[in-house]
Amino acid sequence: MTSVAGADGAPFIGIDFGTTNTSLGLAASDGSVQLAALPGRGGGVSTTWRTVLYFEPDATVFAGAPAIDRYAETEGEGRLIQSIKSHLSSAAFTRTMIGGKTWTLESLIARFLRGLRAAAGVPDARRAVVGRPVRYWGASGEADDARAVERMRAALAAAGFTDVVFEFEPIAAALRYAARLDHDELVLVADFGGGTSDFSLVRVGPRVAPGDPSAILGTGGLAVGGDAFDARIIDAVVAPALGRDTSYRDAFGAVTAVPTWLFARLRRWHHLSFLKDADTLRLLDRLEQGALAPERIERLVRVVKEDLGLALHQSVEASKQALSSGDATRLSCADLELALAVERPSFETWIAPELDGIDAVVGSVLERAGVGAGDVDTVFATGGSSLVPAVRRRLGARFGDAKLAGGDELTSVAWGLAARAHQLFSGRAG
Question: Which domains occur in the chain, in start order?
Answer without folding.
Answer: 12-182+408-425 (3.30.420.40), 230-350 (no CATH)
